[in-house]
Design goal:
Blueprint lengths: L5 E4 L3 H11 L19 E11 L5 E3 L4 E5 L5 E6 L5 E6 L5 E8 L2 E7 L5 E10 L8 E7 L1 H6 L3 E5 L7 E5 L8 E7 L8 E5 L7 E8 L7 E7 L2
Parallel strand pairs: 2-9
Antiparallel strand pairs: 1-8, 2-3, 2-6, 4-5, 4-7, 7-8, 10-12, 10-16, 11-13, 13-14, 14-15, 15-16
C-alpha cells in the first residue's frame, strides 16, 4: 500500500498528533493521484504491530501499542490498543484518513503517522527495540589486515566505519551473516584513490581464508584472515 507521507518523532504524543493537521493533508509525494484516504464506504483496517530487535530481524508482538485513527484535518476519530496477539482489526469509517501508532521504547515515546490510508491490510508496522537484541544470533569476528596494509601502504582501513578496531560483532539476518563493510582511505591528502569492499562471512572453520572482492575495478583482490571468537 502506498502512503503519501510519514512523520516520525519522539516527543509528546499530543504534540505529534496535532502536527498531522498541519503536515499531512497536503502530503509531499510524487504520487499525482488525489488523496485516497476516507470518502469511501465504511471498512476495516488490519495489520500487525511489532518490535524489531535493533541488531537483527527478531520480532515480538508490540502488545499495548496505541493505534489512532484521524480525520482528514488530523483530529482524532478513535483510539485503541494492540491486543496480546499483536494483530489489530479496527473500524475504518468514511471519515478516516490518517493512521498513527505510538510505541514506548526504553521510556521514550515514538509516534509514526501514515497519511491518506485506505481500508484493508496495512501490513507490519513497528519500531526498533534494543531490549530484544539478546535473542539475536551474533558472533564476534577478528580480522587481520596485514596483507592489506602491505599492499596499500599509506591507507587507513575502516571496518564498518571504524578505523580503531579489527573486530566486528555480526548478527544473523534471515539465518545468514550480512557482509562486513571495508573502506580504505588515504591516510594523507596525496591524491590516492579511496576503495571499498565487502567481506562475506561464512563460517566453515574456526580460522578461514577468504578473498575480498572490491567494489572498484582498479583494486586487486585482497586476502583477509578472520577467526571466530569463542
Amino acid at each position: 500500500m502506498r502512503h503519501k507521507g510519514m512523520y516520525t518523532a519522539s516527543t509528546s504524543m499530543l504534540l505529534i498528533l496535532g502536527a498531522i493537521g498541519l503536515t499531512g493533508c497536503g502530503g509531499g509525494s510524487d504520487d499525482s493521484s488525489p488523496d485516497r484516504g476516507g470518502g469511501t464506504a465504511d471498512g476495516r483496517l488490519t495489520g500487525d504491530a511489532v518490535y524489531y530487535a535493533a541488531a537483527c530481524d527478531v520480532t515480538q508482538p508490540a502488545v499495548g501499542t496505541d493505534i489512532i485513527v484521524h480525520r482528514k484535518d488530523g483530529t482524532i476519530l478513535s483510539q485503541s490498543k494492540v491486543p496480546s496477539t499483536g494483530k489489530f482489526d479496527i473500524a475504518w469509517p468514511s471519515e478516516a484518513y490518517h493512521f498513527s501508532y505510538a510505541q514506548t521504547i526504553n521510556d521514550e515515546l515514538f509516534v509514526t503517522s501514515l497519511l491518506n490510508v485506505v481500508a484493508g491490510d496495512i501490513g507490519i508496522v513497528g519500531g526498533r527495540n534494543s531490549n530484544l537484541d539478546s535473542a539475536c544470533s551474533c558472533t564476534d569476528f577478528n580480522f587481520s589486515f596485514d596483507d592489506i596494509y602491505f599492499a596499500y601502504n599509506g591507507y587507513t582501513v575502516y571496518l564498518n566505519g571504524d578505523n580503531k578496531t579489527r573486530r566486528a560483532n555480526v548478527c544473523k539476518q534471515d539465518g545468514q551473516y550480512p557482509p562486513v563493510n571495508l573502506v580504505l582511505t588515504p591516510s594523507h591528502d596525496d591524491g590516492l584513490t579511496s576503495y571499498a569492499a565487502q567481506i562475506v562471512l561464512t563460517i566453515m572453520l574456526p580460522i578461514a581464508l577468504y578473498m575480498l572482492t572490491p567494489l572498484y575495478l582498479k583494486t586487486p583482490l585482497m586476502k583477509v584472515f578472520y577467526s571466530m571468537l569463542y
